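2024-03-11 09:14:02 DEBUG pipeline.ingest accepted 1 chain
2024-03-11 09:14:02 DEBUG pipeline.ingest length=470
2024-03-11 09:14:03 DEBUG pipeline.predict start
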Amino acid sequence: MTSAARDTSGTLTDKNGRPGPKRTVPVSERIGFTIGDLASNLTWSTVGSYLLYFYTDVALISAAAAGTLLLLARIFDAVIDPLVGVLLDRTNTRFGRAKPYLLFGSPVLAILTLFTFWTPGTHGTFDLVWAYLTFILVGIAYSAVNVPYGALMAMVTRDSKTRMALASFRNVGATGGLLIVSIATTPLVRLLGGGDQQRGWFLTVALYSALGMVFFWIVVKLTKERIPVEQATRARGSLLADLKALVRNRHWVAVFLASLTQFARLGVVTGGAIYVAAHVFDSPDTVGLILLAFSVSGLLSSFVAPVITRIFGQRQGLILSLVVYVVLTLVLALLVHNLLAFVGVFFVASLFGGIGFVALPALVSDSVEYQDFKTGRRNEGLLYSGYSFSTKVGAAVGGAALAWGLSGIGYSAESESSAVSGGIAALFICLPVVLAALQIAALSFYRLEKDLPGITKALEARNSGSTVGE
């Protein structure tokens, strides 16, 4: 190879293999990652924040049945996500490795998201069957798009600091998506539905789905896969060997468990907000204020997370943030009769509790380097598929725990009692605290940070022969 090339860290090199400019990811590409997470969350934040409510209050499915549905459908992803990851590790097309999934999968995701928020209206068994079918299919479509999109960050650069910066840009987009969903959804449902909730939900989700599809196409245009295909395709081989390497990657396992509990908290908070608004504060419209506080806190986390992880380190920074989150969340129990005070403390707690949404995707990419160093297998697709699985199953576990909790306190669409409102407040506060404690335990096993610079240098030295002209 005699033309300009790129080394395995994603840095430009000239025809003699000399390193070019240090900056490897231009601003336009970073914005592309912001747009990608915006697209992803227009779909998944809508599902996470409103699908349980849609099931219980529009489709009139019982809370217990809806909770079981949310969990069982996501267990199916135990097969789908790794299959997508394995397929991605073996993909090499003229469009790239990850990009074809975004290009061709996003229209399918848009259509299935739309029909997930539609119900036949029989008020019987067929409504529940339809809910199972559409929720399973939209989960498959989301895997087919989001696993490759998430793995794309590990294909762009090897540099851990650059990936942390990209993760911050991603979180800005994710927060933007949640912000739009939080503020605009219920007004749009009323406006577009004209009093018909089912029509309002269908048209609102149609708008979100169409925007998400277009945004994913923009990601395809703006991003660039830099890790050489020759290196990436080295991971092809025995699936059993890939899976063994995965479970022996203790740093990835720690991140997987931390992500599982992080997104279970997300499932409880976003799914529970509308119940807290309607039954604790007696005003369904205050859900916009609660989710607005959560969204803005997530946006600020994008800027705070790099500072905290730089000062305290990745693991210690995450653990300290979670400790603050637990303390502040427990304080909420004293504020259930004061909406503004409740939202204010909830905002600060969510700021610290949201650090993981920024840092964990970057830690997944770091675990890819460890896997490559130890086994010679990068397996970006497989490792990120495991992370994607943890986010979906985590959110489903959180949503299911919330739904079963609602059933346990006797909730129904018509229920109005102090016992129900007190039970909803307890679920909204206690479930996230327990999950945060489990997340701290998982993060205590992550120990990669100090060794990563040496691992990266060793990989660059090992792979340099593939990027310099012969």
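2024-03-11 09:14:41 DEBUG pipeline.report The longest strand covers residues 5-6.
2024-03-11 09:14:41 DEBUG pipeline.predict end
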